[in-house]
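Hi there. Long-time user, first ticket. I'm pasting a complex I've been working with (about 468 residues overall). I'd like to know whether the download I got is complete or cut off, because the file seemed smaller than I expected. Thanks.
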Amino acid sequence: MAGRAAVPEVIWARPERTGRGPRPAYTRADIAAAAVRIADAEGLDAVSMRRVAGELGCGTMSLYNYVPRKEDLYELMMDAVSGEHELWEPCGDWRADMIRVAHQTRDLMHRHTWLPRLMSPVYGFSPNALRYLEHCLACLDPFEAPYGTKMELVAMVNGVVTTYVGNEIATVERTRSLPWSQEQENAVRIAYLGRQVASGAYPRLAASFAEAAGPIDLEGVFERALTRVLDGFA
Amino acid sequence: MAGRAAVPEVIWARPERTGRGPRPAYTRADIAAAAVRIADAEGLDAVSMRRVAGELGCGTMSLYNYVPRKEDLYELMMDAVSGEHELWEPCGDWRADMIRVAHQTRDLMHRHTWLPRLMSPVYGFSPNALRYLEHCLACLDPFEAPYGTKMELVAMVNGVVTTYVGNEIATVERTRSLPWSQEQENAVRIAYLGRQVASGAYPRLAASFAEAAGPIDLEGVFERALTRVLDGFA
DNA sequence: AGCGCACTACGTACGCTGTACGTAACTAGG
DNA sequence: CCTAGTTACGTACAGCGTACGTAGTGCGCT
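Hi, the file is complete. Here it is re-exported in full:
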């Protein structure tokens, strides 16, 4: 009954197949792909054990043979999409390579908008995550600094990307569960914010709003944040 | 039936008391305080509508007269603890003031470990959040830059603090729902990680681990991240 | 060769969640 | 005074993660 043992374990330390018993009907990759498909199409909250089992075509509780806890399903999902990271030969300019890494991660998160939400709570070092981390360190070979600093740089870049894409996506993802449209939601919030700012209680905030003409250039904000972070390390 | 209208609205735009009907038994502050008490003591997941109502001593569905959706309860909670921010007279050195802001936010999050988890998805501009934002802008008065840049600085500092404290807290918060201890969890994960690193597949990661003697100095990591971000703006 | 055990599969059931809805009591405005 | 808008709250529903029991399957060992 190893599958039911209430024992701390990392899913990646569990062999996918032990040899004994009937051969499993699905692979971890199958399960991860099904979950990712659901999350991409209907949002992370649509990913339930029942729903994934349904997508696979098996009974709900059969899933628990592969995935002891739901959190492990999340780790499977993250590892699966981490595998989409393209790992290139570093060009020798660590700054350029880190910018490329950041852009790629951002694209990945745009493709899988549920990623930022999972990044924070789950600090798993899945196989593909380790590969990605190693690649980042390879990009930083020309950066003369102790590994501690390099790790902090990687963490910082990842953190900034996660935060920014998370903010970009927040509204979209949130309105998925609401009975009204994203435009209505935004309109209401902006109207309220405008009223508050117009009240005169927040002069600098008001000035800030007055200064801003048109919508925010998210792309530019991201780019600037990135270069500033890298500047801070150089 | 305004309380039941399925209409987009911000909770802060709803008057707390309209005049008609029996006078409400609780204030928003009461409700927020109850929810915060639960979250502080037992974690965010312990905050359910039933639980909060129980803490207040009323029926579950009575809560919905005050809080149309659970997400609004979260906004109430965030606003309540945002009120704990001390707002001082800026000292004239925006760098020093921003560092002080960051430290205070960090302390706040240590006191209320569920805050980082709520920060990302909820982008509410509650009264106390606006006050806090205005205060940050006041601290940045000596920083000669357009308001757009100042806002990006504030967002960046807040983002970094949220990310770092979130990471600090992740393990602690996560093990709350697990049947085994945080130490066991960590031991298992470290053992797995050590095995992977020792496999030779990740040479730089291995070097990085070899370099690190003893546990990570989280305090130092935070401090360095902060100064680097500020450096990137100056 | 065959026994036993570890494994897969899966239905049922429990306690929990957010919340829609109906009803009764109450009170301020017209 | 009346009535409309509120508060209060019990009941109910659909969904969740998952503990547990049971039946069938096939590898590894003796």
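A couple of notes from our side: The CA atoms of residues 25 and 102 of chain B lie 37 Å apart. Chain B has two domains: 2-81, 84-233.
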